[in-house]
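Quick one before lunch.
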Amino acid sequence: MGGRILIIGACGQIGTELTLKLRENHGNDQVIASDIREGAEELMQSGPFELLNATDELHIREVVEKYEVREVYLMAAMLSATAEKAPMKAWDLNMDSLFHILNLAKEGKLDKIFWPSSIAVFGPTTPKDNTPQTTIMEPTTVYGISKQTGERWCEYFHRKFGVDVRSIRYPGIISYKTLPGGGTTDYAIEIFHEAIKNGEYTSFLAEDAALPMMYMDDAIKATIDIMEAPAEKIKVRSSYNLAAISFTPEVLAAEIKKHLENFQISYEPDFRQSIAESWPSSIDDTAAREDWGWEHEFDLEKMTTTMLDGVGKTLKEKA
Ligand code: AKB
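Model of the 2-amino-3-ketobutyric acid complex:
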């Protein structure tokens, strides 16, 4: 085994923090960051970087060969809200990139792959509360359809060709270091920025839109834990349900108000509300907890204080 790690989509919200953590764990020169554009200074300065389009199969192969890569984290994707505006582009990016990596692993050129799925694989006919690992999946968004299709292909490549692919259905990920790009759950980050800057926020989701969420540190821990678990422990080769916290915009606003008592929230739901309505409110992640020992650390209270602190510092640095 051995060999280097390649992150595709390293400059995005999750990719940035994942790359930095993997560099801390494995050494800077062992973790190759790549993205279609350059990212945060800390990421660009801390180790190798390649400008790479995730749909460019030939270039991915060249980078894998050049750095003797054996593990890939494919973090490039078009998220739910943006994908509704560019369906074919989203489909091409989300599917082509996955096939390129699966095929490299099938050819024996990679040992292990991480590919993120999402709660978007579920749809309006899925049981909404405590959504089970295995259940009805009829996604209604382009993003959800691409993630569900991707899950089927991951399982197929594992079963048919022995590809060691591992995956998690991310809930909304909350963080302050790198902004998210085009998701339905992004309100839960915007709210902190607006609360600190302006003392008010207009939510694009309705007050009672409950969604599963998770603080970034937990998401990074889950991603690294599933990749480091012994192969025989990974029994689900489509994607694992993963849960931490679930809340509505109203509940989050109330938690923020405990710290910023003058904070005001109003609601102007847009097209993203119908996406949120089609997704689960909460997730049953027993399989992840039992199979590879998943445990979350951040509850609503801890996430809120960490975000207020982090966003506050970031805004001060920028000012
Ligand atoms: C989105 O809102 O599109 C993403 C997701 C839940 O996968 N954050």
